[in-house]
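Quick note —
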Amino acid sequence: MEIKHIKTDEFDNVINSNKLVFVDFYADWCGPCKMLAPSVEKLANEHEEVQVVKINVDEEPSLAMQFGVQSIPTLITFKDGQPVNRQLGFMPYEALEDMIK
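Predicted structure written out below.
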């Protein structure tokens, strides 16, 4: 499934869908974010039951502030519009899969 890059005005509609939503808060200049990107893409491709979205913190600072994102990458899974899991920093693919179980 394709990864969506979303903006603030789309956020509520996306996280309030009936799917589990995996959100990657990142920035283009962030080294660990770039290292994590292939694993996030793999997650999207291998788990079509999960909506995977990316939010660029430089372009959407209000969303980053709303969820207390102070370091990146910050990964948050949402179920029924509520955050249910949160991890900071680079992690192996298996840890990403654990976030959606």
